[in-house]
Write a structure and sequence with these properties.
Largest sheet: 5 strands, antiparallel
Strand order of the largest sheet: 5-6-10-8-9
Oligomer: single chain
Number of strands: 24
Length: 1024
């Protein structure tokens, strides 16, 4: 039943917004876009916020709570927003601590403690602690982006809880703020401190008196009613108030999900970082047999982790072609237990693993055993387990799987039997065979279940299943939640686990701290129904718009493509991979892949209270997508494969349909046309593009940012060079024939790349063909959302390539973004076109062709040089980089392949007006500093035109080469000692004299025209 105060509306929203803007040092957002981006978390639930506050300081956040209390507005503190039980979505003022309030306030290495602000991300905290050899022990799978405030709110755990316990076990003190304004540090309370608090009187004393009363009233219930298991996360931690536990108020508040207080700062206990680790993987016939063996294993060892992975998840990974390296490292079996050992030396950790094997009668030589003390191999094997949520969220069979019963926990000694009964329950409800995995060393089970959350019948079955599952886990002495908390998903079920008296005690604790139910209302206490406020539900009626892209991997549905995002939040990571560059630069939710997906979901208008009301014309969605670099990093880095670049292109196509587009869409969107026209007078074009005054005016008209320099057109294009060569066209059917794709960038700006590719391919014994008519992949039209034009361009290209397509001739791409169009975008844009499918199968990268198809006797020239290498984002996402690594290795290159994310230019993005600041901010996150740090004698390699341009214009003092150029230079002999890139040909910028003379000529021309026009006006006036 809903609580009357929980559902009370905020009476004066405009007044609240104005008061927050006046009082809070931070960003106050009550616009539809911000509210839509925060409307849900990683759960099944959705509630549109009243507004968002992003405080710049902890004091500002406290001030925001004070203002909300004055207006009786509900408050929800939010960190990474990854909660799976609905506790970080609410019709409330959401305080997002993650953008600014992320300080490591202090560290005491001797005491092994630190003080942090709530917005600090776990990986970032541990990075800052690394110099002290310390870390925060609990490490959930969201460690790259979860905030400590959220971990405290959820009582997060992760695999490392096997060694270090839950978050509650690692919190020493909390600085908290109650809704009615009491601000205090809390922790264990001695008798002397308790007496001092009582003597001081006031609201704080009232709180402590109330805690004493609750403990006294429910003492026996608390001692007897809490499951004695490692992973009890459900319910409030009333057991921390017991006398034997030191009346620890901080630990009582951990896991309260923002329903009692606002956490402002936290003092944490730290643990040493293990010097060495090893990993032992044991194979079993099925997951229940693996679970049965857990207690036996733990009798003989104390691992840092004891994780489980079942055959169903392995099957899903193989079907999705994901984490194959991880699977290859596993031993025989259909389910596996992974035990990680930590210690001070390699001998120590190895000995722990071998001692366990001897104790259980196994050997490292057994087919069902895999042992590793190689950190890189260990990470590969563990990555498969850590990827569970993403892999199971969107199975290849297109079933939708959901949270709801995703983290139950039981005593480890009863785990096998519990899994057998849970499987029977799945069968009874016809839920097929969900994957079962998790933290088996502590009896915690993860799964995602194909609940039918779109129909009334499916939702009713969902509720019945949860009730039955809650009774089942309670019968085993377990916990509804072993990690993710209660929120809305389990709040209504707590009586089935704890009974009426303890749940009444929870309510009294809530009333004590938050008598008006304004702190994250509707969660844990007075909870909304488990089947209420669903993100989908039987009343969800979204629009089903016609689209240009076919979305073949999403049942041909734009809606399903949008719903790939399940809120995991990896796009909010700060390092590693590519996704999401705009979030890393701005730290804004709506500029993350997840935030944009949420707004697109709202745009579909399936709910009466959808924040976005004007569909494709939405300015809120447009503004969120505006800073999307269309890098495609999310296509590969997102665990569920969200392709925001494609969604953005589709949106832009409809958003501008039938009306004027931004100037950049005409200038850069039609770049292939303007590049071809530059052949009429390339020197004059270059002079005009770089002439003082004239270039600035041109940029303004073209929608190009004034801070950008236009790339220089080559005097002779690659196609012109090729025609002048007058080589005989090879037979398309000749197995040695390859088509070299003349992309716009390698043809008109950096033709030396294509020329170099011809040299290397011919050195390898191939016969090179180049299309005899103009062709284009349509990339620039796709990225600007001019999709009908892109389809027309592609059809023309297919017509030109038809002889080669029919003959099966390989097509070699040099520019990764163009190659990615043929592999990915074109098949999605024209899924029924067989020539598109043929081209997708025949196109190869330069490296792929040389590594996999060059004659056996051919070897690339030896370069014997260190190389700093930036992978183009589209290659990272679509083609991958394995072949390039192999080719560079064969050429003797010691390649440092950067893992610094996107370069920030991203095609037209970094050139567009208003994007320069974000573009450079992205570049400065890693790529540019890495290039500046490269030694003068090393190569800087980038196959992407955008990456090369950003490096050249980014103040690095270096110029990047394409791998084809580096190999061609190697054909000519040893590379120069320093700055080897200077040996490669690049078109030169017009001289200062030419640029100024062009400006002068333009001024004279304009002056003459103005004079002539003036005379004409005078003559007309005289005649009048």
């Amino acid at each position: 039943m809903n609580h009357p105060l929980t559902d009370a509306p905020v009476p004066d929203v405009p007044g609240l917004e104005a008061a927050l803007r006046a009082a809070v040092d931070g960003e106050v957002r009550f616009d539809a876009g911000s509210r839509g981006a925060y409307a849900t978390d990683g759960s099944n639930y959705r509630q549109v916020p009243v507004g968002i506050v992003v405080p710049r300081t902890v004091e500002a956040g406290a001030r925001a709570v004070e203002v909300c209390a004055r207006f009786r507005a509900p408050v929800l503190s939010r960190g990474g927003g990854t909660s799976l039980a609905g506790q970080s979505t609410n019709t409330a003022v959401v305080i997002d601590w993650s953008k600014y309030c992320h300080a490591l306030v202090s560290v005491d290495p001797d005491a092994r403690t630190c003080v942090v602000e709530p917005g600090i991300v776990l990986d970032e905290l541990n990075r800052r602690l690394a110099d002290h050899g310390l870390q925060f022990g609990p490490k959930p799978s969201t460690h790259s982006h979860c905030a400590l405030g959220g971990m405290i709110g959820n009582n997060s755990c992760g695999a490392s809880a096997q060694a270090y316990g839950k978050t509650v076990d690692n919190v020493r003190r909390l600085e908290v703020l109650t809704y009615d304004g009491v601000r205090m540090w809390v922790g264990p309370t001695s008798r002397a401190e308790r007496a001092r608090i009582a003597a001081e009187g006031g609201r704080r004393a009232e709180l402590y008196d109330g805690l004493d009363r609750i403990v006294a009233e429910y003492l026996a219930d608390i001692r007897q009613g809490y499951p004695k298991i490692p992973r009890r996360v459900s319910g409030y931690n009333l057991d921390s108030l017991l006398p034997e536990n030191g009346l620890d108020v901080a630990r009582t508040l951990v896991g309260s999900e923002g329903t009692l207080v606002t956490v402002l700062r936290a003092e944490l206990d730290l643990v040493p970082v293990p010097a060495r680790q090893s990993l032992l993987v044991l194979g079993y016939d099925d997951i229940c047999a693996a679970a049965d063996d857990v207690t036996h294993l733990l009798e003989h060892c104390r691992p840092d982790q004891l994780e489980a992975l079942d055959g169903r998840m392995a099957q899903l990974m193989r079907e999705e072609h994901a984490y194959l390296e991880s699977l290859d490292a596993l031993p025989e079996g259909d389910s596996w237990l992974m035990l990680q050992f930590g210690g001070d030396s390699q001998e120590d950790v190895d000995a722990q693993a071998h001692a366990l094997l001897r104790a259980v009668g196994r050997s490292e030589k057994d087919a069902t055993v895999a042992f590793s003390d190689d950190p890189e191999r260990e990470q590969r094997m563990l990555r498969a387990r850590e990827a569970g949520l993403g892999v199971t969220a969107r199975p290849p069979d297109d079933r939708e799987t959901w949270e709801g019963w995703e983290d139950s926990a039981v005593p480890p000694e009863r785990l096998g039997d519990y899994l057998r009964d849970l499987k029977k329950l799945f069968e009874e409800f016809d839920y097929d065979h969900p994957s079962l995995y998790g933290h088996f060393g502590q009896g915690c089970v993860h799964t995602r279940i194909p609940f039918g959350l779109r129909t009334a019948e499916g939702v009713a079955r969902f509720r019945r299943f949860l009730e039955r599952a809650a009774d089942l886990v309670a019968s085993y002495g377990g916990s509804l939640s072993g990690e993710h908390g209660d929120g809305q998903a389990r709040g209504e079920l707590l009586t089935r686990m704890f009974g009426d008296r303890l749940v009444t005690a929870f309510g009294e604790l809530k009333t004590l701290f938050d008598p008006d139910d304004r702190m994250n209302p509707g969660k844990i206490v007075h909870p909304h129904p488990v089947d209420g406020q669903l993100r989908l539900g039987p009343h969800w009626r979204p629009a089903t718009p016609a689209t240009h892209f076919g979305f073949p991997d999403d049942d041909h549905s734009f809606n399903r493509a949008v719903m790939r995002c399940v809120g995991i939040g990896n796009c909010r990571g700060h390092s590693g991979g590519v996704m999401c560059p705009s979030y890393r630069a701005t730290r804004e939710e709506e500029h993350s892949t997840r935030g944009r997906a949420r707004l697109l979901f709202e745009m579909l208008g399936g709910h009466a209270d959808s924040a976005v009301e004007d569909g494709w014309r939405s300015t809120e969605v447009h503004d969120a997508l505006d800073l999307c670099l269309a890098c495609k990093g999310c296509k590969s880095d997102c665990p569920t494969g969200v392709d925001m670049a494609t969604l953005k292109a589709e949106f832009l196509s409809h958003h501008y349909e039938g009306r004027m587009r931004p100037a950049a869409h005409y200038s850069m969107g039609w770049l292939p046309v303007w590049a071809r026209l530059s052949r009429l007078a390339p020197s004059l074009v270059n002079a005009a593009l770089h002439a003082p005054g004239l270039s600035r005016a041109g940029k303004l008209l073209a929608g190009v940012d004034a801070a950008r320099s236009a790339p220089v057109f080559a005097g002779q294009s690659f196609v012109q060079w090729w025609r002048a060569r007058d080589a005989e066209a090879p037979d398309p059917a000749d197995p040695r024939t390859v088509v070299l794709w003349p992309d716009t960038f390698s043809t008109y700006f950096h033709p030396a790349i294509a020329v170099s590719a011809v040299r290397v391919l011919e050195d390898a014994g191939f016969r090179v063909a180049v299309p005899d008519r103009p062709v284009c992949c349509g990339l620039t039209w796709i990225s600007t959302g001019q999709l009908p034009r892109a389809q027309k361009v592609l059809r023309h290209t297919l017509d030109v390539l038809r002889p080669y397509l029919e003959a099966g001739t390989p097509v070699i791409g040099l520019e990764p973004s163009c190659t990615a169009v043929f592999r990915s975008d074109a098949p999605e844009l024209m899924p029924e076109d067989q020539d598109v499918q043929r081209l997708a199968g025949q196109v190869r990268t330069f490296a792929e062709h040389l590594v996999h198809h060059a004659p056996d006797g051919w070897r690339p020239p030896r370069l014997d040089r260190h190389a700093t290498v930036q992978t183009h984002c589209h290659q990272h996402a679509v083609m991958k980089f394995d072949a390039d690594r192999e080719l560079m290795g064969r050429a003797g290159l010691d390649a440092d392949v950067l893992d610094e994310g996107c370069c920030g230019l991203a095609g037209n993005f970094g050139f567009e007006s208003g994007h320069h600041e974000v573009s450079m901010a992205v570049a400065e996150l890693g790529v540019l500093p890495a290039v500046r740090g490269a030694s003068p004698d090393s190569l800087v390699l980038c196959d992407g035109f955008s990456c090369r341009t950003q490096i050249e214009q980014g103040g690095t003092g270096r110029r990047a080469l394409h791998l084809a150029e580096a190999l061609a230079l190697g054909l000519d002999g040893p590379l120069p000692g320093e700055h080897p890139e200077q040996s490669a040909m690049r078109p030169a910028r017009p001289s200062r004299a030419v640029r100024w003379s062009t400006t002068a000529a333009a001024a004279v021309t304009v002056g003459a025209a103005a004079t002539a026009a003036g005379r004409g006006v005078l003559r007309a006036l005289r005649r009048a």
